[in-house]
Amino acid sequence: MSLYCGIAYRRKISQGYRLLSTYVTKARYLFELKEDDGACKKAQQAGAFYLFHSLAPLLQTAEHRYLVPRFSLLASLPKSEVETELQGSFIELRKAIFQLNSMDSSLLFTAQALLRWHDGHQFCSKSGQPTRKNIAGSKRVCPSNNIIYYPQMAPVVITLVSDGTRCLLARQSSFPKGMYSALAGFCDIGENMEEAVRREVAEEVGLEVENMQFSASQHWPFPNSSLMIACHATVKPGQTEIQVNLRELEAAAWFSYDEIATALRKKGTYIQQQNEAFPFLLPPKLAIAHQLIQEWVEKQTCASLPA
Ligand SMILES: NC(=O)C1=CN([C@@H]2O[C@H](COP(=O)(O)OP(=O)(O)OC[C@H]3O[C@@H](n4cnc5c(N)ncnc54)[C@H](OP(=O)(O)O)[C@@H]3O)[C@@H](O)[C@H]2O)C=CC1
Ligand SMILES: [Mg+2]
């Protein structure tokens, strides 16, 4: 039984935080760790580790939340013994995101994405020879031709479309029961963000958008690493009739401010909410889709206030 360990890059320099006072110094230290195997080996001795098994992180349960323990020592033990010894379980990250906090999730997402990338890039695509990982895990090199492979993220646009008073959400059959989200899609090669937003909205719901506004971005590890680029957009006036592309989506609909605001206020665990008679759930707080929806509600609230 093999155990993977994901190195928490930002945490492992905990000693360094006190000595290095500025963001620039910290960024340069991390750069050095990626470039200098010796420096990285040294840092690992004082570092903290997350444990993964088959890409599932070891988590501890506390009430309705998951805690992410970090370890300084690693031993090779069977999975079940590790779980018993460390009072936790290896839990699929996709299932755990509903109960993780944002600090933990960001590091876990990075660690899992790196582990997955290394697992899938063991061989050079040109020579077919095994590639070698540097100590930091920031790249792999083919010893026969020196080609360097770096971990990659696929750009994905995610758009919250509004008609001024309602917003458009959709669901795929793979989503958890009752969950609706903003429209997302991978950028095609050669496309810029604006073109990808227009195309994805047209492809998925048959609408044309205008007035795009960038909101924020996020690294998302599922199913492979994506860079989520989140935007707001509006449909052309009077063009609100949805034509769902059933190859991509199970359903799509316009939702009113009240429906969305009520869903945002829902309490209880995700499972409890899913068991309601008519579950309508929004993406977890950690997902940038949630942030887009929250922003839209805030904008609507401001717009309805008297001047
Ligand atoms: N963080 C967040 O808030 C959210 C994140 N997402 C993420 O956005 C991503 C894209 O959303 P989704 O609607 O599925 O995308 P798309 O609408 O682009 O549809 C996905 C399909 O596109 C094809 N595809 C094209 N390029 C790629 C690529 N580089 N990698 C994988 N598949 C590709 C695949 O088809 P085929 O399998 O036939 O090859 C896949 O089934 C997903 O990974 C999802 O997890 C989505 C919503 C919210
Ligand atoms: Mg999509």
Give the structural class. alpha+beta
Strand proportion, as a percent range, falls in 15-25%
Major beta sheet summary: 6 strands, mixed
Q: How many strand segments?
A: 14
The 3D shape can be described as: globular
Oligomeric grouping of the chains: single chain
Bound molecules: NADPH dihydro-nicotinamide-adenine-dinucleotide phosphate, magnesium ion
User: For the residues shown, what is the average pLDDT?
Assistant: 89
The CA-CA distance between the termini, in Å, is 65 Å
CATH-assigned fold name of the domain at 154-302: Nucleoside Triphosphate Pyrophosphohydrolase
CATH class of the domain at 154-302: Alpha Beta
SS summary, helix count? 10
What order do the SSEs take from the amino end to the carboxyl end, as H and E? EHHHEEEHEHHEEEEEEHEEEHHH
Cα-based radius of gyration, to the nearest Å? 22 Å
CATH architecture of the domain at 154-302: Alpha-Beta Complex
Helix content: 25-40%
* pLDDT < 50 runs, ≥5 residues: 1-16
Looking at this structure, what is the CATH superfamily of the domain at 154-302? Answer: Nucleoside Triphosphate Pyrophosphohydrolase
Q: What would you note in describing this structure?
A:
Pfam families: NUDIX (PF00293), Zn_ribbon_NUD (PF09297). Keywords: Hydrolase, Magnesium, Manganese, Metal-binding, Mitochondrion, NAD, NADP, Transit peptide. One of its GO terms (cellular component) is mitochondrion. GO terms for molecular function: metal ion binding; pyrophosphatase activity. This is NAD(P)H pyrophosphatase NUDT13, mitochondrial. Strands 9, 10, 11, 12, 13 and 14 form a 6-stranded mixed beta sheet that branches. This protein has 10 helices and 14 strands. Helix 2 (23-35) packs across helix 3 and helix 8 (257-265) crosses helix 10. The chain has a domain at 154-302: Nucleoside Triphosphate Pyrophosphohydrolase (Alpha-Beta Complex), CATH 3.90.79. The model is unreliable at 1-16 (pLDDT under 50). The protein is an alpha+beta fold and 307 residues long. Strand 3 and strand 4 form a beta hairpin. The chain has helices spanning 14-19, 23-35, 37-45, 79-85, 93-96, 102-120, 193-205, 257-265, 270-274, 288-304, and strands at 4-7, 49-53, 56-62, 65-67, 89-90, 132-133, 140-141, 148-149, 154-162, 166-171, 183-186, 209-220, 226-235, 251-256. Bound molecules: NADPH dihydro-nicotinamide-adenine-dinucleotide phosphate (NDP) and magnesium ion. The site of magnesium ion has 4 residues, from strand 11.
